Amino acid sequence: MIRSMTGFARRERQFPWGLLAWELKTVNHRFLEIGCRLPEEFRIGEAEFRQAIAASVRRGKVECSLHFRPAVAADSLQVDAELLASLTQRALQIAGRIGTAA
Hints:
Strand content: 35-45%
Order of helices and strands: EEEHEH
Oligomer: single chain
Shape: rod-shaped
Radius of gyration: 26 Å
């Protein structure tokens, strides 16, 4: 079986907290050279990512990129109606004292 050192792979996975997408590109190279592009939130895992790649790849130039898109939930914002009413009342009182009541 012939194995090529040139290749491309992309894998996406959706989580409740966001979307992760890995992209791997490889080309022929005499030694193993791994380049990683990671979002700041995932930099702490770079050494582990490199070890996982080195465990599967003997040589070649490997470029890996991790893309992260956080989930945006429409119902994530909740308003405390009681607190809002209290703040509004207080703002009206202050405005009345300084003579700028609406």
